[in-house]
Recover the amino acids of this structure.
């Protein structure tokens, strides 16, 4: 009888440990790291359609995004309609987002920081008049949003997002900057497919 009781107690302990481990795993997934599947061609060649990344949901609570970070975020509601929050000249990137955010998750690269003066020429980003070194980008000199020479100033606490595939990305050029509070986190590694596992 004592042996049976000990065995039952041991099984209960194992079950408790498993429950705790699963609960911790779910908590980590929910609050610290989130998986994300690449839904479109906008980040080619860096990320292919269907590729999976892990997103750090914590670091931006203690710091700010950097230029070049790949981030997951909720875009402005205008992104659903490819519309800017204000009227603006056709040769200018969208300077202001719509006031409401979309429920869709997007993944893009941070190309502009608060206070930057930004324009786009032949798919390349110019910040404060200086062309940025963007070896990751697939440039397109002729797409509809690849030549926007009239500068904008990115508002305080906002970030400008663009896809690496400049000719195939609906991004801040069309629907404006993204408030920091709408940014979910930074994509820091890819884990699927196995042949592309690595840090971003």
């Amino acid at each position: 009888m004592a042996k049976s009781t000990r065995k039952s107690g041991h099984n209960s302990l194992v079950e408790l440990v498993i429950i705790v481990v699963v609960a911790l795993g779910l908590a980590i997934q929910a609050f610290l790291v989130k998986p994300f599947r690449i839904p479109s061609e906008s980040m080619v060649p860096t990320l292919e359609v269907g590729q999976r990344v892990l997103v750090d949901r914590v670091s931006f609570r203690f710091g700010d995004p950097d230029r070049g970070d790949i981030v997951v975020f909720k875009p402005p509601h205008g992104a659903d309609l490819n519309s800017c929050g204000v009227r603006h000249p056709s040769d200018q990137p969208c300077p202001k987002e719509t006031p409401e955010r979309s429920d869709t998750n997007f993944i893009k690269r941070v190309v502009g920081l608060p206070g930057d003066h930004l324009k786009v020429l032949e798919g390349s980003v110019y910040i404060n008049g200086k062309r940025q070194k963007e070896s990751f980008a697939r440039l397109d000199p002729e797409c509809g949003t690849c030549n926007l020479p009239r500068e904008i100033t990115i508002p305080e606490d906002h970030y400008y997002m663009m896809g690496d595939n400049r000719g195939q990305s609906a991004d801040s050029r069309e629907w404006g900057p993204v408030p920091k509070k709408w940014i979910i986190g930074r994509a820091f590694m890819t884990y699927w497919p196995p042949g592309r596992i690595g840090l971003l």
Notes: Residues 123 and 146 are 4 Å apart (CA to CA). The radius of gyration is 21 Å. The first helix runs from residue 2 to 31. The helical segments are 2-31, 172-175.
